[in-house]
Amino acid sequence: MRSVSVDLNNDASLLIDIPDALCERDKVKFTVHTKTTLSSFQKPDFSVPRQHEDFNWLHDTLVETEDYAGLIIPPAPPKPDFESPREKMHKLGEGEATMTKDEYTKMKQELEAEYLAVFKKTVQVHEVFLQRLSSHPILSKDRNFQIFLEYDQDLTVRRKNAKEMFGGFFKNMVKSADEVLISGIKEVDDFFEQEKTFLLDYYSKIKDSTAKAEKMTRAHKNIADDYIHVSATLNSLSADDSTANKKQLEKLSDLFEKLRKVEGRVASDQELKLTELLRYYMRDIQAAKDLLYRRARALADYENSNKALDKARLKGKDIPQAEEHQQQCLQKFDKLSESGKKELTSFKGRRVVAFRKNLIEMAELEIKHAKV
User: Fold this and answer.
1) For residue 171, what pLDDT is reported?
2) Is the separation of the CB atoms in 355 and 3 below 8 Å?
3) How confident is the model at residue 5 (pLDDT cuts 50, 70, 90)?
4) Is the Cα dihedral 110, 111, 114, 120 positive or negative?
5) Which of 130, 235, 239, 254 is 20 to 30 A from residue 261's alpha carbon, by CA?
């Protein structure tokens, strides 16, 4: 079952999936499989090995491409994080002596299932990133995207060094300061003004909902873990009991074991259908906000070019250059506005479809578990 629902075109000319992945300590090696009828590719069916850093490289090249400034660039998949299940497994090993064999076995099974769920989600978010690109009419034709899919050797994408990381941090600081400066510029289009207001408010609400959903999921997981201890304790008591209470204790132990399985499934379904969806759209909303920022930056550049042209005319100097620069800024701004409207409208439709689909599926699963 897919954790993140995206509105894909399902264009059979370029189909991408990740059928296999291998976890090696802190790294995950993905097998990216492509099936295509497009003549721009050398083969109709091929697979290549890729690491998380390769996905980041592809995302960064798309963001930095000037021609894509008016597009919502699909958010980069988050870095694989298996630290939490590994830490829990380590603690379980340390506490093995204080548990019964049955209790330890069930706790271990729970943690192994949690690790597998994290691994599957990691694969899925990387797969969704590529499928978002392949379904986009412009990004699907990007040369770097094709290289990512087709080049069968290591892309030799290295991790950023300290200098580059600091440069990225400084760039984000400049962007934040720039956003404050251009926020004072009066918007000339009501559509974008409404989108900006909506996205800022919506992002805040989605962020709050994500935190609450994570808290709810953790609560269900904790209850499931507690049921393991209760069931094991009752089972241990029944083993030492030779009275008429023995059968009652065994039945109670079985009941808590069944409740544990239900709580575990509920936690898994909520994580899969709600929490993960909210996390994804937090990142996707940020990508939409980045589009609005780039357009606002283009508007600021256009207004500055108007001021520069006025100065040139007053001085009677460099007027042709100033007029040319103004026209370039205007064309860029108009282009971003045109493509931005299409992208934001598409984003709204995709978002509504995704939430409706996942919430319906989650409700159906909740009803199913309630009947157990």
Assistant:
1) 56
2) no
3) low
4) negative
5) 239
The mean pLDDT value of the chain amounts to 86
pLDDT tens-digit map of 40-80: 999 999 999 999 999 999 999 999 999 999 999 999 999 88
Q: What is the pLDDT of residue 72?
A: 97
- Extract the tokens encoding 333: 């701004």
Could you give the CA distance from residue 296 to residue 368 in angstroms, rounded to a whole number? 48
Structure token pair of residue 207? 């962020």
Pull the structure tokens for residue 41.
């590719």
Residue 41: what are its φ and ψ, rounded to 5°? -100, 150
How does DSSP assign 67-131, residue by residue?
GGTTS-PPPPPPPP--HHHHHHHHHHHHTGGGS-HHHHHHHHHHHHHHHHHHHHHHHHHHHHHHH
pLDDT tens sequence across 201-225: 999 999 999 999 999 999 998 998 8
Candidates 323, 331, 345; CA nearest to 299 is 331
The contacts found for 290-293 with CB under 8 angstroms, 24 or more apart, are: 290/63, 290/72, 290/73, 291/69, 291/70, 291/71, 291/72, 291/340, 291/343, 291/344, 292/192, 292/195, 292/196, 292/199, 292/340, 293/175, 293/179, 293/182
Distance between CA atoms of residues 314 and 116, nearest Å: 69
Q: How many angstroms separate the CA atoms of 259 and 11, rounded?
A: 43
Across the beta sheet with 45-51, what order do the strands follow?
A: 14-24, 27-36, 45-51
Find out whether 358 and 5 touch, Cβ atoms under 8 Å. yes
Q: What is the pLDDT of residue 10?
A: 59
Structure tokens at 181: 């400066």
